[in-house]
Amino acid sequence: MIMTKLGVFAGAALAFGLVASPVARAENVELRIATLAPSGSPWMATLDKAAAEIKEKTGGRVQMKYFEGGQQGDERDYVRKINAGQLDGAAVTAVGLSMIDESIRVLEIPMMFASAEEVDYVADKMWPYFQKKFEKKGFRLNDRGEVGWIYFLSKNKVASVGDLKGQKLWMWGDDQLVGAMFKKLGLGGVPLGIPEVDSALTSGRINAAYGSPIAAVALQWYTKIKYMTSMPMSFAIGATVVSVNTMKKISAEDQKILQDISRSSSKKLRKTIRKANEDARSTMARKGVTIVPTPQATVDEFAKHASAVQTELVGKVYSKDELDMVLKHRDEYRAKRKK
Q: Which of 39, 84, 258, 294 makes the best surface tag, with the fewest CB within 10 Å?
């Protein structure tokens, strides 16, 4: 949803799910991967563990070198550097993925999903479709990771859209989906990259942001705010992408090893991040952050505007067919649940 993206890292994406290439030749390869995920975060813990397993099982032929915590800039910088050959890949949020193919943001439309299980069902159905689109653009889209449910975080109490309008609210400058939602809600937004948010909260340049609980804790934003809304606005996902040209340097055998490890790791990652978000929410509450109940009238207002944005972005961010696929799979899941 709204950039879940705070996504911050999606990095989380984990997964180097790599399909074997018939033209691959055996070489020792070090994959240079950038991510916003901070050192010591659950995302990096999972990525590092998978990297160690990849090194062991390929006999050192494939190794991962991570540039964590925004060392290589923001996610736009990562995509640019991959295209320039300065990086081999990146673990990014859907905002970063959108810089390769924006249509993937159809999976993060505000107020689209009612549960993480709905997200899993729809994203699993749609992922092969997006993998083919990314492959045509020169990127291997690996298994799905996530950031989680996205909430508003603020220094002042926010319980309505009117309250939000009175805040100096951060907006990820590269996020067209969030920008459209903010415009519909009548919110201004201060465009910044994720690496700039912490200092902006400290200096007072902004006094509100949005993100998942674990992202707020990992990036230390929670130490600068006092409130978090109870209403989740969207569910943020992510993934690791690797240059197809880089993958051609890896043997089919080693690509299969990477694929197997990535699939296993990504499943563990999603489970880990969901538990970590629950723990982070408790940590924030224990440290004095108040969870503000969102009135039903505010939820309804968000849903109304989200529905309008959903339609308005057809032909701009995603196609009508892509939106219809998401709605079909979501409604299919809900029908099965009722039975």
A: 84
Q: pLDDT tens for residues 76-118?
A: 999 999 999 999 999 999 999 999 999 999 999 999 999 999 9
Instruction: State phi, psi for 204 to the nearest 5 degrees.
Output: 95, 5
Whole-prediction pTM value?
0.88
37 — phi, psi (to 5°)? -60, 125
Radius of gyration of the chain (CA): 19
Question: Please, what is the Cα angle at 140 between 138 and 144, to 5 degrees?
Answer: 140
Q: Tell me what pLDDT residue 3 has.
A: 42
Q: What is the mean pLDDT of the chain?
A: 91
C-alpha 36/C-alpha 110 separation (Å) is: 23
pLDDT tens-place string over residues 233-263: 999 999 999 999 999 999 999 999 998 998 8
Give Cβ neighbours of residue 65 (< 8 Å, ≥ 6 apart).
30, 31, 32, 33
Residue tagged 């999603």 (tokens): 270
Provide the strand spans (E) within the chain: 29-35, 62-67, 89-93, 139-154, 170-172, 190-192, 208-211, 227-229, 234-243, 290-292
177 contacts 184 by C-beta, under 8 angstroms = no
Distance from C-alpha of 152 to C-alpha of 264, rounded to nearest angstrom: 32
